[in-house]
């Protein structure tokens, strides 16, 4: 019942958030916006699946390392520091930004606290915990809600946009591999910064082929309960 209520709340929130995005969408055509929004939601869901697969016990270590690499590939900088343009009095300069991070809360009992770690470290730790026979949970299940909502969609340059995507995650730690009894369970609301760039590739005939490049950024932990 709690999960049903959670998804219902997320659905209601999505209607409000989607309306806000559309209202502020003055820089993209309707079809471009629909395509970008659909792709963002697809990529965020892909990341959620990767997290669940890395925390679980279905895949081998080699398979999990491949999943980790694919997960990092959808983030800006692929888990490493990345260049950003910084405005100056003479135009723009380029500087290196720290690698993307994952924000989390220690537990729902300490919901006011936050921990930030590089995404590479977070994903690797999921694998390590899942393969550690002495870890406090014998089995971990991380599930993401199907609903992904968007807001704060805004233009930051020519052909460049930024937005925020929100999703809900359920974390369950079991004391035994048969999943009979859950020792710990929480729900977390998370927000991901989204980077959107219009890429143009010149063709042999002099025309340009365009596509939207979507990359994920930092992940913030909004609340946990």
Distance between the amino and carboxyl termini: 15 Å
Q: Tell me the fraction of residues in β-strands, as a range.
A: 35-45%
Which structural category fits the helices and strands?
alpha+beta
Question: What shape does the CA trace take?
Answer: elongated
The count of domains is 1
Q: Which fold name is given in CATH as the topology?
A: Nuclear Transport Factor 2, Chain: A
Largest sheet: 5 strands, antiparallel
Please tag this protein with its features:
alpha+beta, 33% helix, Nuclear Transport Factor 2, Chain: A, five-stranded antiparallel β-sheet, 225 residues, two-stranded antiparallel ribbon, single chain
Architecture blueprint of SSEs:
Elements: H1 2-23, H2 30-55, H3 61-73, E1 82-88, E2 91-97, E3 101-104, E4 115-118, H4 119-131, E5 139-144, E6 149-157, E7 160-174, E8 182-202, E9 208-224
Antiparallel strand pairs: 1-2, 3-4, 5-7, 6-7, 7-8, 8-9
Q: What can you see in these coordinates?
A:
It is a single chain. By secondary structure, the chain is of the alpha+beta class. The protein has a single domain (2-224), classed as Nuclear Transport Factor 2, Chain: A (Roll). The chain contains four helices and nine strands, in the order H-H-H-E-E-E-E-H-E-E-E-E-E. The protein has helices at residues 2-23, 30-55, 61-73, 119-131; strands at 82-88, 91-97, 101-104, 115-118, 139-144, 149-157, 160-174, 182-202, 208-224. Strands 5, 6, 7, 8 and 9 form a five-stranded antiparallel sheet that branches. Strand 6 and strand 7 (160-174) form a beta hairpin. Helix 2 (30-55) packs antiparallel against helix 3 (61-73). The longest helix is centred in the N-terminal third of the chain and has 26 residues, at 30-55. It starts with a helix and ends with a strand.
